[in-house]
Design a protein that fits this description.
InterPro entries: GH (IPR017853), Glyco_hydro_25 (IPR002053), Glyco_hydro_fam25_subgr (IPR018077). The protein has six helices and nine strands, in the order E-H-E-E-H-E-H-E-H-E-H-E-E-E-H. By secondary structure, the protein is an alpha/beta fold.
Length: about 210
């Protein structure tokens, strides 16, 4: 695994209270916190994690866990209300697509695209889409439109790079472990790698208005 990658993590309330200054000292360049899920669920620690990430000097982003059986517009508006005003340097939001919720592929694709489009229009930036290799190939590979969004791929391997899903030519972030250990976090945490330089990561961030 190349040392050229920038290290990051993604968290939710499952990690409990996080000591973000200590996390920053471990060389964590970026972090994403869960903001919302479905049409009404708000992560109970997002309001603590999100400002603390920024205060610790970590490039921050927020993500939403998609329920394909709930109206995508409702989910997008819920996420935006939880996110609140964006600030210079904030990273684009991420849509977590990893469960079918009993829906067929076309419905999952449609829900994901609707959420991505509405959030992109509202924030003026291109969101990322997160999924595992197996889920993408089984449920999302039929939608060429999803390939237009930067991919955050979940694949747990010791290889130097992840295997890409069908129809995808590159990736932005690789979640390479889900049982990582980082000082400042009591339990296990997802470990991520940004596929680019510090300058590229900064360019993803929202410019100063």
């Amino acid at each position: 695994m190349s040392n050229a990658f920038l290290k990051g993590i993604d968290v939710s309330h499952f990690q409990g209270k996080i000591d973000w200054p200590t996390v920053a000292q471990q060389g964590i360049a970026f972090a994403y916190a869960k903001a919302s899920e479905g049409g009404s669920v708000t992560d109970p620690l997002f309001s603590a994690n999100y400002p603390a990430m920024r205060a610790a000097g970590i490039a921050r982003g927020a993500y939403h866990f998609l329920h394909a059986d709930v109206d995508a517009g409702e989910q997008a508006r819920h996420f935006l209300s939880v996110l609140g005003p964006v600030q210079a340097g904030d990273l684009p939001p991420m849509l977590d697509v990893e469960t079918a919720c009993g829906m067929q592929c076309a419905a999952i694709d449609s829900a994901a695209l609707s959420w991505l489009s509405e959030v992109q229009q509202a924030l003026g930036c291109t969101p990322l889409i997160y999924s595992s290799l197996s889920f993408w190939n089984s449920n999302l590979a039929g939608s060429a439109a999803l390939c237009a969004y930067p991919l955050w791929i979940a694949e747990y391997t010791s290889a130097a790079a992840p295997v890409l899903p069908h129809g995808v030519s590159g990736y932005a972030i690789w979640q390479h472990a889900q049982t990582g250990k980082v000082d400042g976090i009591a339990g296990a945490v997802d470990l991520d790698l940004f596929n680019g330089t510090a300058q590229a990561l900064a360019q993803l961030g929202r410019p100063a208005s």
